[in-house]
Amino acid sequence: MIEDDDRIRLSLVLALEDEGYAATGAPTAEEGLAAQRDHPADTVLVDLMLPGIDGFECIRQLRRSDDVPIVVISARDDTHDIVAALEAGADDYLVKPVAVKELTARLRALRRRARVAIADEVPVLRFGDLEISPEAGEVRLHGEQVPVTRTEFQLLCELAEHPGRVLSRQQLLQRVWGYDGGDERLVDVHVGRLRQKIEDSAGTPRRLVTVRGLGYKLQK
Question: Cα-atom radius of gyration of the chain, to the nearest Å?
């Protein structure tokens, strides 16, 4: 956990240890990044208001070289901050004060997603020039590989496995994130990031379609 408030950092580390986790803390982004580089953790918790390198830049630096699940824990609950953190590469966002039971439920869901095994017999899914290979964990557009995060890939696969069918935000939260309820902005931000990667231009017919009041669908 990267958190500059000693009281919060220590209390959460101790609470997580009580829940059976091996947890450590760092007071600055610089120390947290070094610790993750030298002794990689399964999940990184990041505060946004950090001295020196702030939480947003910390997430970006982590994401450049590491696909580790990242959870933001911050007192900042403004939509702009939440969207900015998710766009920087965070997988989830919790607002302080955090209930330990909710945090551990989110951590379990993140680890389940990280361990999901794709069946060998799943075929390549094609949507025009877009190809999704669940077995290889790859996305290609016009034959060129598209870099996507684990969460983006799982979201795209979920939509691709139900072509033309509308899936609600709550359905996607449950199937991709493993959450029974949650902040629907998680879905909206990841859909927006996927659109930037798999759609060529504003003039191209949209592949990832918003159905107002219902949810999203992937169409050919």
Answer: 18
